[in-house]
Amino acid sequence: MWNSATRFLRIVATVIRYRLDTFIPIQLLPWYLKYSVGLVLSIGRKRLDKNRSTRLRLALESLGPIFVKFGQILSTRRDLLPDDIADELAKLQDRVPPFSGELATLIIEKELGASVDEIFKAFDRKPLASASIAQVHTATLKSGEEVVVKVIRPNIEKTIRQDIKLLYTLAHFVAKTSSDGRRLRPVEVVQDYEYTILDELDLAKEAANTGLLQRNFENSDLLYVPQIYWDYSRRNVMVMERISGIPVADIPALRDKNVNMKVLAERGVEIFFTQVFSHSFFHADMHPGNIFVDPSNPEKPKYIAIDCAIMGSLDDADKNYLARNLLAFFKRDYRMVAELHVESGWVPKGTPVHAFESAIRSVCEPMFAKPLKEISFGQVLLGLFQTARRFNMEVQPQLVLLEKTLLNIEGLGRQLYPDLDLWVTAKPFLERWMSEQVGPRRLLDEVKKQAPEWAAHLPQIPNLVFSTMTHLSQQEIRIQEQTQALEQIRKELRRSRRNQPFKLLGLLALGAAWITTDNIALEHLAQADILSLALFLGGVYLLVLKP
Questions:
Q1: What order of strands is seen across the sheet that includes strand 223-224?
Q2: Is 134 assigned a ligand-binding role in the annotation?
Q3: For the purposes of burial, counting CB atoms within 10 Å of the CB of 138, is it exposed (0-12), middle (13-18) or buried (19 or more)?
Q4: To the nearest 10°, the Cα dihedral for 19, 22, 27, 30?
């Protein structure tokens, strides 16, 4: 409790120091806050020496690694943030002071149940790199293999959960007081952050992600994924093959190795679309710090990917709609784009398609004033999603991750090769993928996919056929019996209808005879004509009521 209170006071002090209160529009506060707290907050607002985005970045840096990580993730939400804030938060780096090597050693030994001397031939207690969630040490296994050991920061989960609670409190406050609260969806942003960062705390999940990505690109000349040493990997410790490559952002070093930059950029795009559409499993944290290049074959350079904590996936429906959206956009078929958004459920079913189409056209058409190679795929998606949000499009987390990754890949590709035409590179892939979703090849793939299950049920087919035939035979007998019963009822009804007119005439005649017989007065009916009344009632029964 005391720790939480201290942390809260530190956050409040940081908010005051960097004047983050300027994000709160005083004019929208309730009157009792506007003329009390609002007057205090308004002091000095016009004399601030730094803009709001810089002050926000500095505040997050001063609050430590958890808020730095939050700022990094927040910077990817360009669908929600103004450009100035997103650009400034993108400057946040994982340059976090490391914790001691002795403490890292204790964590490793606790997780693996043995001393580092028993596990490793050599272990460097000085970290190779330090990030907000974990740090990395180099080591050598007893077998002589060079590895890196990733260790989660001690007590970081407790700190994260405390900070997340405070972030929720701040998010709810912003949602209620800010004019942009509904559009920015601060509570949903914190929820995304909570999900992402808690996943990053589990290195066992990261190891599993790495293993799957490695299998997807096994024997590929596009991407290499380091080997995981499963015997030495736990929730808080992961041991992985040490890779040797050039950081992708080190352009001079790549040029020194005569790497073909055009091919390198195009291969990055191919890797992205292969992950998204062929594997349905993509690396969603592809910033330059996680990507290296193997320059051993300069004309066909290979990428090396690390840090698979954040991964994304799309289901078949999302992939199909996304591919069709992109193809329709580059054909300027905005009607199709609008219909696909409604059909996919990304916007409500009652959305007026003509109005949505017009809004999309107003955003996208100006892009075609540029050469095709200058059109940003990421900005296309961003423009589509921002326009759709005006029509109550719900946040699609899987699409946000995709957009973030595409922006990273596109920016990196054009940094490597400024003349990269992403459309020329991606269009054939998208068209080929779409063609594979229909036709004989797709049918054959489905048959291959279902064949094991069909084979498993094959021995049961004779029994199923016999059971089905028996059931159909019994059903046929019951239908025949019901048909005979219905036919009998029809015959009775027809006979009854044929006799009905004669019965009615007889009834009328009998009634007339009874009423006129001897002109008997009604008051003497009970005494004088009991016999006539009995005959009349008997006639009613025989002529009308009896079938």
A1: 223-224, 302-305, 291-294, 246-247
A2: yes
A3: middle
A4: -50
What token pair was written down for 324? 């069709």
**b/e burial code for range 11-29 (CB count within 10 A of at least 16 → b):** beebbeebbbebebebeeb
Burial state string for 305-326 with b = 16 or more CB within 10 A and e = fewer than 16: bbbbbbbbbbeeebbbbbbbbb
- Give yes or no for a contact between 203 and 237, defined as CB atoms under 8 angstroms apart: yes
**177 near 37, Cβ under 8 Å?**
no
Length of the chain: 547
Query: How many CB atoms lie under 10 A from the CB of residue 191?
Result: 17
Task: Collapse the DSSP code of 42 into the 3-class scheme (helix H, G, I; strand E, B; otherwise coil) and give the result.
Answer: coil
CA torsion 234→237→242→248, rounded to 10°?
A: 110
pTM reported for the whole predicted model: 0.67
* Active-site annotation holds for 285: yes
DSSP string for residues in 400-417: HHHHHHHHHHHHHHHHH-
Do the annotations mark residue 475 as ligand-binding? no
Catalytic residue among 192, 285, 307, 318: 285
Over its length of 547 residues, how does the chain's per-residue pLDDT go in tens digits? Answer: 566 677 777 777 887 778 776 766 655 555 555 555 555 555 555 555 678 888 888 888 888 767 787 787 677 666 567 778 877 887 775 556 789 999 999 999 999 999 999 999 999 999 998 877 899 999 999 999 999 999 999 988 888 888 888 878 878 877 777 655 565 567 877 887 788 788 889 999 999 999 999 999 999 999 999 999 999 999 999 999 999 999 988 899 999 999 999 999 989 989 988 998 889 899 988 777 789 999 999 999 999 999 998 888 888 888 888 888 888 887 889 899 889 888 887 788 888 889 989 988 887 787 776 665 676 766 677 777 677 777 777 666 667 777 778 777 877 887 888 887 777 787 788 888 877 776 565 556 556 656 666 666 667 777 777 777 777 777 777 777 777 777 777 777 776 666 655 555 555 555 555 555 544 444 454 444 555 555 555 555 555 445 5
Taking the CA atoms of residue 460, residue 462, residue 464 and residue 466 in that order, the dihedral angle to the nearest 10 degrees is: -160
Element (H, E) at 65: helix 65-75
User: Is 128 annotated for ligand binding?
Assistant: yes
> SS3 sequence, 217-266?
CCCCCCEECCCECHHHCCCCEEEEECCCCEECCCHHHHHHCCCCHHHHHH
Residue 50 is assigned to a ligand binding site: no
Q: Determine the Cα–Cα distance for residues 519 and 33; give it in Å rounded to an integer.
A: 101
